[in-house]
Amino acid sequence: MRVRSNFNCVRVFYRSLIPYHSACLQFFNNQLMKLPLFALSTTLLISTSSFADTYTYVFCGLPDGSDWDWLISEQDDYITIEGNWGRVTETTGRYFDVFKVNEHTFYTKVLRCPAGYIPQPADRGTSRWQIFEIIRADGSSYLIDAYTTYYFQNSVESNFQLRV
User: Which of 31, 126, 144, 154 could be cross-linked to 132 through a Cys-Cys bond (beta carbons 3.0 to 4.6 Å apart)?
Assistant: First the structure.
């Protein structure tokens, strides 16, 4: 029996009880050897991207959470900022999400919200209320005082204004 293509190997593999042709066995062995390499490559890609900086959009919200709007540039583009998502967990188990931004980046980025509004991070319009955590050059950090969503055991507890 002569094998003309990989398709024939698959057909022989599934439909025949006769011993496999050596070319088919070699084809399947080569395919199986590629699986660990593929799995390793995928794992490395996922782990490196989780440590990479990301971008998120910025919106302007009132301190009580009653109104918000996207921050738009003079060229009518949505404003984005570079940083990393994080989580602050309290001793009670409640937590809220923060977007960690370098202090220099935060203040050089022109985040001009209307009077009374505070810049806040969001991935989309349906995002919950998150806040910025500003990272100083010495490694210390502080939170931007704004309305935020608290979570408890994977559910939304309620919205409170964060006072720092």
Answer: 144
Distance CA 157, CA 136 (A): 30
What CA–CA distance (Å, rounded) separates 71 from 61? 10
Q: Strand 147-152 relative to strand 118-122: parallel, antiparallel, unpaired?
A: unpaired
Taking only the tens place, the pLDDT of each residue in 85-133 is 999 999 989 999 999 999 999 999 878 899 999 999 998 877 889 999 9
| Residue 50 CB partners (closer than 8 Å, separation 6+) | none
Closest CA to 58 of 78, 85, 86: 78
CA 40 to chain centre: 21
Q: What is the DSSP letter of 91?
A: T
